[in-house]
C-alpha cells in the first residue's frame, strides 16, 4: 500500500510542473503580438468614408474582421480581435469592422488573437509576415466563424478564425460591408 501511495505522489509531482508548462505554452503569444495584459475597448462607425491613402514614403495595412455567425448563435456576441505589428498591439476590431495603420517600408510581422478571459479562446492566434513597399496598401483579414449547435440536452459554440492576406479587390469589397473600428487600450 505504501508503494502505491509513493507512486501516486511521484506521478502527481511529475505531472504538476508538466501541466503548468503546457498551460504556459498555450497562452504564450508569438513575438509579433503585444503584451497579453493589453485589452481594448472598441467602438465602430458605420458607413465611414474610404480610407485615405498611406502617408508619403509609407505603406498601409488595413486589418479587417469578417464575422460569420449562424442564426442559432444570436447570443454569441461579437468577439474583439487584437492585432499586433512587430511586437506591439496596434488596434482591435469587433464584428464586421476594420482599421488602418501606416508603416515604414520593409519586413513586418503581424499577429491577431481574440481578446478573451477564457484561455481556450485565447489559443486562437493568427500570424503573418510580409514585406511592405512605400505607397502600397495591404489587406489582412481575420475571418471569424461562430456556430452554435445542439449537443443533446445542451448547446455549444464552435469558434474558429483564419488570418490571411487578401487581394486588393477582395479587401476593398470587404471594406464596403464593414464599419470603421476605433480601439482604446483599457487601463
Give the SSE map.
Elements: H1 2-27, E1 40-45, E2 59-69, E3 80-85, E4 88-94, E5 97-103, E6 106-115, H2 119-122, E7 125-132, E8 137-151, E9 154-166, H3 168-176, E10 179-185
Parallel strand pairs: 2-8, 5-10
Antiparallel strand pairs: 1-10, 2-5, 3-4, 3-6, 6-7, 8-9
Describe the structure.
The protein is globular, with a radius of gyration of 20 Å. β8 and β9 (154-166) form a beta hairpin. It is 21% helix and 48% strand. The strands form two sheets. Strands 1-10-5-2-8-9 form a six-stranded mixed sheet, covered by helices on one side. A four-stranded antiparallel sheet has the order 4-3-6-7, with no helix packed on it. By secondary structure, it is of the alpha+beta class. The protein has helices at residues 2-27, 119-122, 168-176; strands at residues 40-45, 59-69, 80-85, 88-94, 97-103, 106-115, 125-132, 137-151, 154-166, 179-185. It has two domains: 1-29; 31-185, Immunoglobulins (Immunoglobulin-like).
Amino acid at each position: 500500500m505504501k508503494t502505491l501511495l509513493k507512486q501516486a505522489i511521484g506521478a502527481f509531482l511529475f505531472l504538476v510542473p508538466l501541466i503548468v508548462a503546457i498551460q504556459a505554452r498555450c497562452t504564450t503569444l508569438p513575438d509579433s503580438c503585444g503584451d497579453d495584459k493589453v485589452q481594448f475597448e472598441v467602438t465602430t462607425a458605420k458607413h465611414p468614408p474610404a480610407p485615405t491613402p498611406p502617408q508619403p514614403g509609407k505603406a498601409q495595412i488595413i486589418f479587417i474582421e469578417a464575422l460569420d455567425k449562424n442564426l442559432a448563435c444570436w447570443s454569441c456576441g461579437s468577439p474583439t480581435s487584437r492585432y499586433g505589428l512587430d511586437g506591439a498591439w496596434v488596434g482591435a476590431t469587433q464584428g464586421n469592422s476594420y482599421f488602418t495603420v501606416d508603416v515604414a517600408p520593409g519586413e513586418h510581422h503581424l499577429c491577431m488573437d481574440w481578446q478573451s478571459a477564457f484561455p481556450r479562446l485565447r489559443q486562437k492566434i493568427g500570424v503573418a509576415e510580409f514585406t511592405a513597399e512605400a505607397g502600397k496598401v495591404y489587406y489582412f483579414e481575420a475571418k471569424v466563424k461562430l456556430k452554435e449547435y445542439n449537443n443533446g440536452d445542451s448547446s455549444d459554440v464552435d469558434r474558429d478564425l483564419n488570418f490571411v492576406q487578401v487581394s486588393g479587390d477582395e479587401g476593398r469589397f470587404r471594406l464596403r460591408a464593414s464599419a470603421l473600428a476605433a480601439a482604446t487600450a483599457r487601463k
